[in-house]
Automatic annotation (TrEMBL), chain A:
The lineage of its organism: Bacteria, Pseudomonadati, Myxococcota, Myxococcia, Myxococcales. This is ActD. It comes from Archangium gephyra. Residues 240-270 are annotated as: Disordered. Residues 240-250 have a biased composition (Basic and acidic residues). Residues 256-270 have a biased composition (Low complexity). It comes from the Bacteria.
From TrEMBL, chain B:
The keyword Transcription regulation applies. It holds the Pfam family Sigma70_r2. It comes from the Bacteria. Belongs to the sigma-70 factor family. ECF subfamily. The keyword Lyase does not apply. Keywords: DNA-binding, Sigma factor, Transcription, Transcription regulation. The lineage of its organism: Bacteria, Pseudomonadati, Myxococcota, Myxococcia, Myxococcales. Residues 116-153 form the RNA polymerase sigma factor 70 region 4 type domain. Residues 9-75 form the RNA polymerase sigma-70 region domain. This is RNA polymerase sigma-70 factor (ECF subfamily). It comes from Archangium gephyra.
């Protein structure tokens, strides 16, 4: 146990949210520490300062406003016309088998799909030859399930992303979510290599969706020349700040960069 | 469990803001994150059973801040922030393996992020026992979670 009462325990002492015996022991411990009671007094003074600076009614209104934005985004998601998708398969299989499948799956080249369930290509400027595109498959107990644009997914779904470069030598894969977060999937860091490989290339690892609301939209950005990843990430962050734009609009990018996207709607599967 | 945001903020808001301030090191970003923590709390209100949610809010604030650190990918200002940013980015690795999500879903558990556990242990200085009680896992469960990240954490622990 560390000598100084840790901050998290100090918070519990101030709130009185510990079992009675523990609370008494923690208070006694704090009182015996040099400056312990002063820390508690400073914390309580900070409580007062925070509530004066950010009054409860003001915070509650802002929280409600943000919640309405999230709810509106969700209801638009829920009102999307139902699409055909493969029936979800319960994950009632041994974990080891599921993970083994995932690992096996991630090491094999994914078959290219030519059915309507294939990823939809948007805003791509190329007109000749094979187009750069993104493929997403969901892990199931059986065969990996290809996901079409606007497919319904939910938190915890494990996805394998793959790309087809279409002859473009450089590219990156990233996603924005309904919470405004931007996640870079490839390269692994903004300073990583942008070179793309040929064929259908699965990213090195699968990806589990988190609990961000409403949607997750994946972008595949390609180029004939190396580009500035930091600028691309900043562009994605700008778009992500407005969830309704992030759901529909392309990334604001210079004409030298092409992009395709695939939107996954978050919510309960039917 | 219906949440009265105003009352909840009055009681827990300063604690949440301090947590966000500690992790994000910026008042404006901390206030913004604090609002999002209460949005998330409302989001989960139907599933809430706790009558003393300081522990839950502390974890939620930690998670919201780690998400921001991860998505912002700012250059860390110092070694403490670097540790946090690196822990935040552990989620990418963890999420991609899918193992935690699958296990939690199979066993019907609330998912506690391994990176949250890492912050509680490495940044907040909680012992395995304290972390275990905080997140509702067994001590061996906490140890196991951190062991899965051992290769990444070794250098962090040495920092």
């Amino acid at each position: 146990m560390p000598h100084r009462t840790p901050d998290w325990l100090l918070e519990r002492i101030a709130l009185g949210e510990l079992p009675p015996e523990e609370l008494a022991a923690a208070r006694a411990r704090l009182a015996s520490e040099p400056g312990g009671l002063e820390r508690l007094a400073m914390l309580e003074a900070d409580d007062g300062a925070t509530l004066a600076k950010l009054p409860p009614s003001q915070v509650a209104a802002e929280v409600e406003r943000r919640r309405r934005v999230v709810e509106a985004s969700r209801s638009r998601s829920a009102s999307t016309p139902p699409r055909r998708w493969l029936p979800a398969v319960a994950l009632g299989v041994p974990v080891a088998a599921g993970l083994a499948l995932l690992m096996l799956f991630s090491r094999r080249e994914l078959p290219e799909e030519s059915r309507p369930q294939q990823a939809v290509l948007l805003e791509t400027t190329r007109t000749k030859g094979l187009e750069p595109k993104l493929l997403i498959h969901r892990q199931t107990a059986g065969a990996p399930e290809p996901l079409a644009d606007s497919a319904r997914v939910r938190a915890g779904d494990v996805l394998q992303l793959s790309y087809v470069s279409g002859g473009r030598p450089y590219g990156a894969v990233l996603s924005v979510d309904g919470r405004g977060a931007v996640t870079l999937h490839a390269p692994e860091s903004p300073a990583g290599p942008l070179e793309l490989k040929g064929g259908t290339v699965p990213l090195p690892s699968a990806y589990a969706l988190d609990d961000a609301p409403a949607f997750e939209r994946f972008f595949f950005v390609t180029s004939d020349v190396p580009f500035d990843m930091n600028a691309l990430m900043e562009s994605a962050r700008q778009l992500a700040r407005e969830p309704e734009r992030a759901r529909r609009e392309p990334l604001p990018l210079p004409p030298s960069l092409s992009q395709s996207s695939l939107l996954l709607e978050k919510g309960p599967r039917t | 469990m219906a949440i009265d945001v105003e009352a909840c903020y009055r009681r827990y808001g300063p604690m949440v803001l301090r947590r966000c301030r500690f992790l994000l090191r910026d008042e404006e970003r901390a206030v913004d994150a604090m609002h999002d923590v209460f949005v998330q709390l409302l989001d989960h209100q139907e599933a809430l059973k706790q009558t003393a949610p300081s522990s839950l809010l502390h974890r939620m604030a930690t998670n919201v801040c780690l998400n921001r650190l991860r998505s912002e990918r700012r250059r860390p200002a110092d070694s403490d922030e670097e540790l946090l940013v690196r822990i935040a980015s552990l989620e990418d690795m963890e999420a991609r393996t899918g193992a935690v999500a699958v296990l939690d879903r199979l066993f019907g558990r609330e998912q506690v992020s391994t990176r949250t556990i890492a912050v509680l242990h490495l940044v907040d200085g909680m012992t395995y026992e304290e972390v275990a009680r905080e997140v509702g896992l067994s001590v061996s469960g906490v140890r196991k979670r951190l062991r899965t990240l051992r290769a990444h954490l070794q250098e962090l622990e040495a920092a």
